[in-house]
């Protein structure tokens, strides 16, 4: 539980720094810096041989692919959305996570969980509507939804068990694959222009990558010891933290429908957590 909560807080700080860096460096430049930071930090904690063993292990390649695609889509969505709006839309993770828990892990879909799931879906849809400034782009929303799907699949693969290696080993491999993906989409001109603003962007990018690295480290470390559904609910609390931290920097421009959607997401999260707690007491 402690590692999951630490992961949520570090993730919120990382999202805020990433959004700030986008105003100073391009998205692809950010991803390249992000990837290099991941690889460096992973090599400080884990051996290269462990990374290779993880990649070649059962479910290892699937985990790397899902996490790499999820990360790329996540930041593609963040580029044109405020951190708060992006985080609430990203809570579609709990929808995909619940569906996976039923279809893959054969958990029971009770009537209560079904209605809570519908509430969460409604909340995500309302959160995706344009805010008071008309700032929600359909493409960014779709990228964010796909990132949630890929991350939910990645966590499911981790629950299915991969190689028993240091938690930083998969992060290093993810950084390597993301570096390749980001390099393929990087432009030949304008990606790297030295200036004081760009230098600040590099610093923010490195810090953002470091925070999310240790957020994912904590996330992976607890993956095998916490119930899949409980982990999904805990991770869904992060939009509240992101919104609160980003308010002084980006404000809040949500309309009534968006606020209603965000409240639905929060209520559905709480309801799912209560449902899980009652089920544990009964069993």
UniProtKB/TrEMBL annotation:
Transmembrane region(s): 28-48, 60-78, 84-105, 112-130, 136-157, 169-189, 201-220, 232-251, 257-275
Domain EamA: start-end pairs: 5-128, 140-272
Annotated InterPro entries: EamA_dom, EmrE-like
Record keywords, A-Z: Cell membrane, Membrane, Transmembrane, Transmembrane helix
Compartment(s) where it occurs, according to its Swiss-Prot or TrEMBL record: Cell membrane
Membrane topology term: Multi-pass membrane protein
UniProt GO cellular component terms: plasma membrane
Protein name: DMT family transporter
Domain of life, source organism: Bacteria
Pfam families xrefs: EamA (PF00892)
